[in-house]
Amino acid sequence: SRFSYVKNYEIADPLLPGTFILARVDGRAFHRFSTEHEFTKPNDERALNLMNCAARGVMTEFNDIILAFGESDEFRHRSFFASTSLYNRRMSKILTALTSIFTSMYMFHWAEHFPQKALKYPPSFDGRIILYPSEQEVRDYFAWRQVDTHINNLYNTAFWALVQQGAHSTADAHAVLRGTLSGQKHELLFSRFGINYNALPARLRKGTLLVRENVTPAPSLDTASSKKKIKRTTMIVAYHCDVVGEEFWKGHSELLNP
Amino acid sequence: SRFSYVKNYEIADPLLPGTFILARVDGRAFHRFSTEHEFTKPNDERALNLMNCAARGVMTEFNDIILAFGESDEFRHRSFFASTSLYNRRMSKILTALTSIFTSMYMFHWAEHFPQKALKYPPSFDGRIILYPSEQEVRDYFAWRQVDTHINNLYNTAFWALVQQGAHSTADAHAVLRGTLSGQKHELLFSRFGINYNALPARLRKGTLLVRENVTPAPSLDTASSKKKIKRTTMIVAYHCDVVGEEFWKGHSELLNP
Amino acid sequence: SRFSYVKNYEIADPLLPGTFILARVDGRAFHRFSTEHEFTKPNDERALNLMNCAARGVMTEFNDIILAFGESDEFRHRSFFASTSLYNRRMSKILTALTSIFTSMYMFHWAEHFPQKALKYPPSFDGRIILYPSEQEVRDYFAWRQVDTHINNLYNTAFWALVQQGAHSTADAHAVLRGTLSGQKHELLFSRFGINYNALPARLRKGTLLVRENVTPAPSLDTASSKKKIKRTTMIVAYHCDVVGEEFWKGHSELLNP
Amino acid sequence: SRFSYVKNYEIADPLLPGTFILARVDGRAFHRFSTEHEFTKPNDERALNLMNCAARGVMTEFNDIILAFGESDEFRHRSFFASTSLYNRRMSKILTALTSIFTSMYMFHWAEHFPQKALKYPPSFDGRIILYPSEQEVRDYFAWRQVDTHINNLYNTAFWALVQQGAHSTADAHAVLRGTLSGQKHELLFSRFGINYNALPARLRKGTLLVRENVTPAPSLDTASSKKKIKRTTMIVAYHCDVVGEEFWKGHSELLNP
Ligand SMILES: Nc1nc2c(ncn2[C@H]2C[C@H](O)[C@@H](COP(=O)(O)OP(=O)(O)OP(=O)(O)O)O2)c(=O)[nH]1
Ligand SMILES: Nc1nc2c(ncn2[C@H]2C[C@H](O)[C@@H](COP(=O)(O)OP(=O)(O)OP(=O)(O)O)O2)c(=O)[nH]1
Ligand SMILES: Nc1nc2c(ncn2[C@H]2C[C@H](O)[C@@H](COP(=O)(O)OP(=O)(O)OP(=O)(O)O)O2)c(=O)[nH]1
Ligand SMILES: Nc1nc2c(ncn2[C@H]2C[C@H](O)[C@@H](COP(=O)(O)OP(=O)(O)OP(=O)(O)O)O2)c(=O)[nH]1
Ligand SMILES: O=P(O)(O)OP(=O)(O)OP(=O)(O)O
Ligand SMILES: O=P(O)(O)OP(=O)(O)OP(=O)(O)O
Ligand SMILES: O=P(O)(O)OP(=O)(O)OP(=O)(O)O
Ligand SMILES: O=P(O)(O)OP(=O)(O)OP(=O)(O)O
Ligand SMILES: [Mg+2]
Ligand SMILES: [Mg+2]
Ligand SMILES: [Mg+2]
Ligand SMILES: [Mg+2]
Ligand SMILES: [Mg+2]
Ligand SMILES: [Mg+2]
Ligand SMILES: [Mg+2]
Ligand SMILES: [Mg+2]
Ligand SMILES: [Mg+2]
Ligand SMILES: [Mg+2]
Ligand SMILES: [Mg+2]
Ligand SMILES: [Mg+2]
């Protein structure tokens, strides 16, 4: 029709070829959402599991995502091979599809993880895409998030111990912790509450890493089928290990040099 | 930490000031989704109502959205006053928040509209943003969509009449309709199936327009309060009227010259 | 060849359709350039004429430029009809062609304007493109530049009068002028140096506006030719008039509603 | 002033950090320019030298440019260290400054290279920027250009030999060459015109590479000064060597791993 010229105002938004595409989704106003839905503090295992479940859902839909890191209300999918041609690397397509799938997976699996608690209102997420030219920056990105997870979680653990077990007001608890170094928080947790921070589940201290790994199919005895092209399959494995050092990356060199 | 340099790779994506921001969301693979969830054909009233409900949810969250048009599995929110400063006009923020809210509203209200039918899998949506410099292009955009809705719906109505009531195969039905003009489809519907196309609900023929309208509060008798600043409230009104001609726009001049 | 994949990394950069394209070029380090080439202070007529000449050269090359405003070492070409399709609105193409032509025109015509003075080193210019959605913003853009021209020129005129005629040091002259209002500078110029600022050439106080105007060809007496399509020609006219008020724009309505 | 809001429409255009910035300039309509200024065919040594001279001028101005490749009427500066922070990596600034400097250098040095020939009109150049994430793509980019230079130059050499020495019409010459392989053109040049293509100057067959190289200052005998920080200086060296193979890059590893 004579109106269809308006379609031409859509401007293409291709992502630079050869770069690693990192997509991040983060819960919108989860401070309120976690309060209204009475998440346990500082960490709610059900909520974290639900986040992991939604992230797995996204990875199942997009095979090109090979790695994801989650903590608190957010997930970062680094996710695409540098060479992905998903949606011709159209930025908005990739970003909105991923954010929308994450959102609906979170809703879809809510009842499994919170069987006793109906959703009071629908949660939502924001998303963004960041490009990294090289492997080093991708590694540093995940390291950055994990260091941050550690700092936040140590603080939150100490804070809620003071409030819940120490009967401090929240203002008080902040005052106690202000300016303390990492070692002092460890010490405080241990001496006052008998909590050995390093013995807490790695899941809480280090966040969750979802990795797409290749599955080598068992060799077939049937000689006929051995001639067939073996279908390469993958599975998504969860880790709660350190990503700052070399070890994890050495064991997963395919993630950076696909 | 020494890793935080990676944050600098996030590139700002401001939308050009002074332009009208139009956001579109469209169901991903709703051909399959509508089949699996047995939507009635060609239009499922429950499904259309659910779409409208999700769009209303978005408009309730974002006051700056003043107009939205929906048909089939998609919604276009033109949405923002040209002068909106929502999220400082950051493209990804606006786009992902809107798409995510739409998605979760759709999920949240599913059971109300499909009480007998559980979701088999989570639906998702893609989104994009288009900028228009002037009112004329915004009007033409909505006109474009409505003309398209009409063409598609007339075709689909004739098609499914042939298949469901005329016992044609789908291939056959396509063959019958190939190359027919609009008038011929009207004629076919009337002569063979007694359907007066123009008497079908406007909702199906013209799509749904959601308009934010100002509500003038009833004047207070209390003289004291009359000095108080009257809080301006708005409500979201649904229309199924023509947007190609002048009439609608004349009656809603505030939409284009806010 | 197997290397040609690298061409795909070129990313398209179309300018939003329907917007007014404004291009600005500004002399790089003209503080130094004007000193080394002994421009007279505060304004060098030869230098300003040369700038105007370069801007005309650009407008002669690109018919779609309809308006340009120059002052000091810079020129703003607003330049393009909102509907221009020059180079398919490719940003880099338009911007670099324009900046390069401006540069080479400046060099090419140097000797005409500075016959006694050889270029000591090649001058260069930076450029940028700004998009405006509506006529109002385009008008305000030129008004903004003209107001700025006025403020700068009044200051510079007073400053150099103090230095050149008043035998102040430059530090002194700045000190004298610090915090003075516009009226006080007028007063100072008049009382101390007998200069009536408003009587200075409009070219200096208001900058130069180059306008593409239609030339109506004289009607032909030859009846045969009157049936031929009359070729529309244009010429570039210089103005030094006010662009803040209504008058100029009323007389040139074709500039904003082409 | 109340107009200054228009400044906010300038949108930032930072180049992705960590990527290699490649800038290309190419003569606009040099088909005509070379004809009007009677460049010798197929290659005019004066014209090529002038291009090299302009490219050197750009490299002298921008220290961050470490490599440039020229052929015919174009130059590609790959130019920037991936980590350059020139103009905060603002795209338009870098691109226009570079294109403008190239243009004015070309004009400035014209008379040295064409002492007998005045410029009939000012030449101009277009420019663009391309980003490459890794060293491999940068290498392949230069290889791509050099392979292209070879193909074009071999064709042009054969073509002009047929026209100038063989008295063919241009249409004829194209017809003779249509569909010929590389080896056949070598053969034709040798058998008909006694030209050993591989013996032609490498400058014509391989283009010109300008490389910024470190200059190690001679050790000072003065013991006092040996404690001073040695100022690192660089010089720009021209090569006409192969860049497709490993050798050049091995000898210049600092270009890719700065
Ligand atoms: N109690 C509890 N709260 C959690 C848990 N996971 C996340 N949260 C809350 C704590 C924070 O208030 C919030 C995440 O912080 P953000 O910086 O993302 O802030 P928020 O989502 O409120 O705002 P935003 O829209 O992202 O700017 O979610 C959990 O497992 N338990
Ligand atoms: N039966 C039925 N189908 C509907 C209704 N509304 C939408 N659909 C289906 C018809 C189309 O197959 C589909 C919408 O067309 P699209 O062009 O958006 O295609 P689809 O969503 O499959 O693919 P996409 O991911 O958008 O490229 O949704 C409805 O009310 N009833
Ligand atoms: N004496 C004299 N100087 C002039 C004339 N026109 C421009 N200039 C000088 C005065 C300023 O120092 C300079 C223009 O100011 P800008 O803000 O553009 O600074 P400049 O070009 O030095 O630096 P930039 O590279 O643009 O950041 O040019 C003139 O007619 N006479
Ligand atoms: N005779 C002669 N011509 C040359 C020489 N170097 C370049 N040229 C001419 C040959 C080509 O016609 C032209 C370069 O080809 P381009 O593809 O860049 O085309 P042109 O600059 O005409 O158009 P453009 O504005 O770049 O699209 O310049 C030379 O050394 N001698
Ligand atoms: O979301 P946060 O708290 O990590 O902080 P941010 O991403 O820098 O902020 P924003 O969501 O506004 O981009
Ligand atoms: O989604 P459609 O069918 O209206 O078509 P499109 O928007 O042009 O296609 P795409 O979703 O690929 O942008
Ligand atoms: O060039 P100026 O002085 O008008 O100032 P600017 O344009 O804001 O600065 P920049 O050239 O750095 O964009
Ligand atoms: O300039 P050419 O001939 O190398 O070709 P191009 O760069 O692909 O074309 P354009 O100048 O139009 O970008
Ligand atoms: Mg955030
Ligand atoms: Mg959050
Ligand atoms: Mg968060
Ligand atoms: Mg689509
Ligand atoms: Mg769809
Ligand atoms: Mg659709
Ligand atoms: Mg500047
Ligand atoms: Mg300047
Ligand atoms: Mg200036
Ligand atoms: Mg070109
Ligand atoms: Mg060229
Ligand atoms: Mg060329």
Describe the structure in your own words.
- The structure is a homotetramer of 258-residue chains.
- Chain A is of the alpha+beta class.
- Chain A has a domain at 12-138 and 204-217 and 224-255: tRNA(His) guanylyltransferase (Thg1) (Alpha-Beta Plaits).
- Chain A is 43% helix and 17% strand.
- Chain A is built from ten helices and six strands, in the order βααββααβααααβαβα.
- Chain A has helices at 30-36, 45-61, 91-108, 110-113, 135-165, 170-177, 182-193, 202-206, 223-226, 247-251; strands at residues 20-27, 65-71, 74-80, 125-132, 208-215, 233-239.
- In chain A, strands 4-1-3-2-5-6 form a six-stranded antiparallel sheet, with helices on both faces.
- The first copy, chain A, starts with 19 loop residues before the first strand and ends in a 7-residue tail after the last helix.
- The mean pLDDT of chain A is 91.
- Chains in contact: A-B, A-C, A-D, B-C, B-D, C-D.
- The interface between A and B is large, with 47 and 47 residues.
- Bound molecules: 2'-deoxyguanosine-5'-triphosphate (4 copies), triphosphate (4 copies) and magnesium ion (12 copies).
- One magnesium ion binds at residues 26, 72-74 of chain C.
Largest sheet of chain A: 6 strands, antiparallel
Let me know the number of strands of chain A: 6
Strand content of chain A: 15-25%
Helix and strand content put the structural class of chain A at alpha+beta
Our measurement of the CA-to-CA distance between the termini of chain A, rounded to an integer number of angstroms, reads 47 Å
CATH homologous superfamily label of the domain at 12-138 and 204-217 and 224-255 in chain A: tRNA(His) guanylyltransferase (Thg1)
